[in-house]
């Protein structure tokens, strides 16, 4: 009986403490960056590319929220297209803050339809953090 009890504990410990199982169960890592300057998109996208390489198949979603007065620059479709193309290549989603668009008089129709628009970028950032996203605000 004593031998049965000890072997049962050994089996349970082996199953539940196996580091390979823990690695296999690791979820994807998601990231969100909130920026107030469109020129920061280039280094942000470089960081996303590096993280994708580092994380490998554990790299999840990467979103960039653009808030503040810089939303006026989103109307420069020629300049933004370069950032949009790079973001698409890296599977990064660019998000515009609807609150900022309203505050600074930017019509949603004047920005690329490839940009996702959320009502409130700060709230959206916090909601993503609640879902486990690693967040950075610039």
Automatic annotation (TrEMBL):
Signal sequence interval, chain numbering: 1-22
Swiss-Prot/TrEMBL keywords: Signal
Gene3D superfamilies cross-referenced by the UniProt entry: DsrEFH-like
InterPro entries registered for this protein in UniProt: DsrEFH-like (IPR027396), Sulphur_relay_DsrE/F-like (IPR003787)
Pfam family, one: DsrE
Domain of life (superkingdom): Bacteria
Name by which UniProt lists this protein: DsrE/DsrF-like family protein
Record organism: Salinimicrobium sediminis
């Amino acid at each position: 009986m004593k031998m049965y009890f000890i072997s049962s504990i050994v089996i349970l410990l082996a199953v539940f403490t196996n580091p390979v199982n823990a690695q296999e169960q690791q979820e994807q890592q998601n990231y969100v960056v909130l920026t107030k300057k469109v020129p920061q998109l280039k280094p942000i996208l470089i960081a996303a590319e590096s993280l994708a390489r580092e994380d490998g198949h554990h790299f999840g979603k990467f979103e960039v929220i653009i808030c503040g007065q810089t939303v006026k620059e989103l109307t420069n479709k020629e300049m933004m297209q370069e950032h949009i193309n790079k973001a698409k290549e890296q599977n990064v989603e660019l998000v515009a803050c609807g609150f900022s668009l309203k505050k600074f008089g930017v019509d949603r129709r004047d920005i690329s339809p490839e940009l996702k628009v959320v009502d409130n970028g700060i709230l959206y950032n916090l909601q993503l953090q609640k879902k486990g996203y690693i967040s950075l605000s610039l």
